Amino acid sequence: MVSTVWRDALTTPALAAFAFVFAIAAPTQTRAQELTVSVPPDSALARGLRSMAGDPISLEDAIARALDSSPQILEARAALDAARGANRRERGAFDPELFADVSVRDTETPTASAFAGAPVLEERNVTSSFGARTTLPFGTSLTAIVHASKSGSNSEFQNLDPEYFANGRVELRQPLLKGFGAGTRGPLTSAERRAEAESARFSQTERDIRAETERLYWELYAAERDYVVQELIVDQANAFLEQASVRAEAGVIGPEQVASARVFLAQQRLALLDSEERLDATSDQLATGIGERPSSIATRGSGSMAGSSRLDGQRFHAIDGPMLDEPGFSSLSEDEITRLLESARTNNLTLVAARRDLAALEATAASGKWNALPSLDLIGSVGGNGLAGTGTLGGSIGTNSLFGTDTTTREIDTGFGDALSQAVSRDYPTWGVGLELSLPIGLRSGRGERDRARAEVARQEARIAQLALSLEEELRDALRRYENGNLRLELAREAAGAAAEQVRIGLIEFENGRSTAFELVRLAADLASAQQELSRALVRTATARADLYRLVGPSDEDRFVAFGRNR
Hints:
This protein has twelve helices and twelve strands. By secondary structure, the chain is an alpha+beta fold. It has two domains: 2-80 and 191-292 and 318-361 and 455-559, Outer membrane efflux proteins (OEP), CATH 1.20.1600; 99-135 and 140-178 and 375-438. Strand 1 (30-31) and strand 2 (34-35) form a beta hairpin. Helix 7 (334-347) runs antiparallel to helix 10 (444-483). The chain is elongated. The chain starts with a helix and ends in a 15-residue tail after the last helix. Mean pLDDT is 78; it is low at 1-42, 298-312, 325-329, 399-403 and 556-567.
C-alpha cells in the first residue's frame, strides 16, 4: 500500500518532467537526400524558446543594424573618408591656379637737381599683375603672367603722362634632379594607394562584421537553448526532491537521500544562474557588435520557464535558428583547397588593403629616392614688352633742347590696350634661360627620408607575408570545421538519441522498481548535456561557414552549404 501511494505521488511531476526532456531530445529526423536538424514545433523546447524574454531580433536584422551603426563600421567609414580627403588634397596640388594683384602708390619727393623736372616731384604708380600657374606631375612648373603699370608725374621731363607699360611672359621651371617625376607626384600616388587600401579595408570590415554578427547571433541562440534545457533540469531536480521527501516520509529511504537531492537541486540552480549570466553576456556582446542596446520592454510567458533576472527584458532574443538545407558537406579535394587558398589570397580584402598600403609606401620611397638628390632646376621664360601713353607736348614726344638742337618729335596718344597688345604680340620680345643649383651639405635630410621610406617598404612586405600565412592557417581551420560539420552533427545526434534511449529504458526500469529517481535525474542531465552538444555542433558549423565567407569572400559563397532561418 505504501509503495502504491508513493508511486502515485511520484508519477505525476516526475514523469511529466522526463517526458519534457524526452520530447526535446527525440532523435533528429533524417529525410532522403536531405539532412535537417530541427525541433518539432509543438515540443516543449520550442515552446520554451518562443517564450524567452528579450527584444526579438532576426539574423538579417542584426546584420543590417550592425552594418548601419556598428562602431567598427563607423570607424572604417571615417577612415575611408579621411583617405579620400587626403587624396583630394594631394590631387589639388596639380590644379591650375589663377592669381591677380593690384597696388597704388602716390609719392611726393623734394628735389635739388635740375634733372628732376620739378622742385617737388609728384608721382603716382598703379601696378597690377594677373595670370595662371600650374604644376605638372613630372614636376614642371608653368606660370603665365601679365604685369601692367600706369604711372604719372609732374616732371617736365616726363614725355608720357600717363604712361602705360605691359610685360607678358611664360615662365618654366623643370627640376632635373630633386623633385623630378616621382619626386613631385609621389605624395599623390601614395594618397591614391592609401584611398584604395581604405576602400578595401572598409569592404573587409563589412565582411568581418557580417561574420562576427552571425557568430554572436548563433552564440545567443545556443545560450538560449542551453538556458531552456538547464531550466528543465532544475524542474526535474525539484521533482526529485519532492520524490525523495515523499519516500522519506513513507520510510522507504533515509534522510541522506533527501540531503543528496537538496545538493543536486542547489547545483542545478547554480548552473542555471551561470547559464543565465552567459545568456546575458552573449546578448551584451551582440548589442556591442551591432551598436544598439535591446529594448527594455519585453514579455515572457509565465510558469516554470520564467526567468529570474532583473535584466530579463534587456536582452536580445534570437528568433532564427540554424538549419541545414543540403544533404551534407562534401569533402574538398586538395585541388579545391588549393583553389580556395589562391582565391583567398586574391579576394581577401585585408591582404588587398595591405598590398595597396605597400604600393603607397613604394610611391613614397620612389619620391624619397629623387628628393634625396641635390636640387638642379632648368629655368626659362619667353615674353614681350609694350609701351603706351599720352605725349606731354600736345600728344607728341621728342628730345629736350637741353641735349642739343634736335627737336624731332612724334605724336603718340595710346592707351593700356595698345601696351598689352604689344606685349602679347611680342613686338618687343624677351627670353631667358638658366640653371639653378642647390646643394645642401651632407644631404642628410633627403637621404634620411629615403632610408626611412625604404625601411617602411621592407616592414610592410614582411607584414604581408605574415598576413598570408595567417590567412592560410585560418582558412584551413575553417575548412576543417566546415568539412567536419556533417560528422559532428551526426555524432551529436547519435549521442542525443542514445541519451534519449537511456531515459526511455530508465523510465521502464523505474516503473518496475529497478531504478531510483536519482538515477533518472542523472540520465536526464546526460540527455541535456547531449542536447547542448548538439546545439554547439550546429553553431560551430554555422560559424565555420561565416568564417569562410569572411576569409574568401562572396566569389566562393555558393560553394558552401547555406543555412536556413527557421527554428
